Amino acid sequence: MAMNDHGLIPRSGKDHRGTPEAPGRVVTLIDRAFWETLVDNHATTERRVWGAAYRIIPSKVAEVQAYLDIREINGYSIQYTQFRPADPSLTLIKCLVYIGLPDNPQFVGPQDPEVLAEHIWKSKGPSGENKEYLFMLEQALQGLTEESRDGHVQDLAHRVRKIVEVDSKQSAGTTLTGNEAAGEAVSTELRRVQSGETRDQHEEVENHDSNRSY
Asked: Deepest of 61, 81, 130, 145, by most Cβ within 10 A of its Cβ?
């Protein structure tokens, strides 16, 4: 299913995938009209955002909303929007959504993609690492339909994976360098000892020669 005329945008998250001292990054929906006023770092052609709608049985509505009100308390507010089923034979559905509005202090807005990727890579909070949130979001969107891949999310996930890959290689390289340094220390000591032995032998020969009579 898709919500027309909305876009995804980063916002800070300090209660799940970050901390108050070092907020992570999560996504929110914004109105398309506001989206078009922003300076975005991605080429954008898609005019809809994919997601899933859940029908809650009437007896559980109050319980579920009370839970979500606590879960989404940090920077999100309740809004209603039209939800368009992927099946064109179905009618629009009016849905309740939690959206971080642009006037909220947690709203971040567009960021340089590489800077954003670096921030997500290093952030974590009570619910886990920020990059895990991003990878799960990407996977969830890919699993909806053949059309539901989001270019923004995919690009960001790709950038974070590259950072993870480079970091892993550097960590492995640091360990190797440590081993090489230890090996070099041993080699240096051997050279020092050997040099000392050669010098002693040389001095012995010189002393022996100096005692000869000609």
From this structure: 130
Question: In the predicted model, what is the mean pLDDT of residues 53-75?
Answer: 89
Q: Which of 116, 50, 42 is nearest to 85 (CA)?
A: 50
The rounded distance, in Å, linking the Cα atoms of 192 and 5 is 74
Give catalytic status of residue 72 as yes or no. Answer: yes
- Other beta carbons less than 10 A from residue 15's beta carbon: 19
Handedness of CA 31, 34, 36, 38 (dihedral sign): negative
Residue among 36, 46, 63, 72 flagged as catalytic: 72
> Is 105 in a helix, a strand, or coil?
coil
Q: Which residues pair with 13 in a beta bridge?
A: 24
Could you read off the pLDDT of 150-206 as tens digits, one per residue?
888 899 999 999 999 999 888 887 554 444 544 554 454 445 445 554 444 444 434
CA distance 93 to 81: 8
- Residues 29-33: contacts with CB under 8 Å, at least 24 apart: 29/3, 29/81, 29/97, 29/99, 30/6, 30/99, 30/101, 30/102, 31/5, 31/6, 31/7, 32/4, 32/5, 32/6, 32/7, 33/5
How high is the mean pLDDT of the chain? 74
